[in-house]
Specification:
binds magnesium ion; mainly beta; 1 helix; Jelly Rolls
């Protein structure tokens, strides 16, 4: 358990610090920059982290929101709208009972209660997540319905209200946060249910050294936004963060970024041979 706590603590450190730094602002109408020009270059790219000059992806109107997508027979259902029995919270490295609110078939982020973290560990596989940003919307840029899907509690697919509201390209909905913008902006309106379907290949480590990076293929509302994209390292704000060795499976998390984002119908299928293992 000690190891688990330490790893979760590392995985959420960057986010927790960011939220703590911002929490003195009023809860309503919070603002944040729409980009930066004083951040380091991203390795292998011609852009800086959260580059204010990086073009924002073109807008694509996805199909209208539909009913929850039923899980296939071999899926592990992580949240079915009823209870958080598969989850616990991680708040600044402290593990406890989940603090988020379950009602009407969804769970809503309770700001300051910590990330929602699975009790079991997961790695490579297919993940299905449904989420909705707050309606009416509030705040700007990174305060507008920010949460996140944290694969292995480390690699973030950004959850954000990116409907007709600007932020930096590598931080909008569907981005591999701080690394890769989505190919297109397939966002639905605030309050409407949106989907992420992710094929994730976990990174591999041997004797503490990275031997194969992680990869993600992501569909946002049924629209391809990443195709076998190599993940640069752990999620971080305003910096490039390298990989840090971890197990082949780690808890899966949803981010508490202090805005009341909702989630429903979360399931995953463990990876088979498509990642070569
Ligand atoms: Mg986020």
């Amino acid at each position: 358990m000690r190891k688990l706590i330490v790893l979760i603590g590392i995985g959420t450190l960057a986010t927790a610090g960011y939220v703590a730094a911002q929490s003195k602002q009023s809860k309503k109408g919070r603002t944040s920059p729409v980009g930066y020009s004083d951040t380091p270059m991203l390795p292998g790219q011609k852009w800086k982290v959260h580059d204010i000059e990086r073009p924002r992806p073109p807008v694509v109107t996805p199909a209208p929101a539909g009913a929850p997508l039923p899980a296939p027979s071999d899926a592990i259902v992580l949240f079915d709208g009823k209870d958080l029995s598969k989850w616990q919270s991680s708040n600044k490295g402290k593990v406890g009972a989940p603090g988020w609110k379950v009602e009407n078939g969804y769970v809503e982020v309770v700001g300051g209660s910590g990330d929602l973290v699975t009790r079991d560990k997961f790695g490579s596989g297919q993940y299905h997540i449904e989420w909705a940003s707050p309606n009416p919307p509030d705040g700007t840029s990174q305060w507008r319905g920010n949460s996140g899907v944290l694969l292995m509690s480390r690699y973030e697919i950004q959850v954000l209200d990116s409907y007709n509201t600007p932020t930096y390209a590598d931080g909008q909905a569907g981005a591999i946060y701080g690394q890769w913008p989505p190919h297109v902006n397939a966002s639905r309106k605030p309050g409407e249910w949106q989907t992420f379907d992710i094929a994730f290949e976990a990174p591999r480590f041997e004797a503490g050294k990275l031997t194969k990076p992680g990869y993600a293929t992501v569909f946002h509302n049924g629209v391809l936004v990443h195709h076998h994209q190599e993940i640069i390292g752990q999620m971080a704000h305003r910096i490039v963060r390298a990989y840090e060795s971890h197990d082949a499976e780690e808890p899966f998390s949803l981010q508490d970024h202090d805005t009341p984002v909702r989630y429903r119908n979360i399931w995953m299928r463990r990876g088979r041979n498509y990642d070569g293992k």
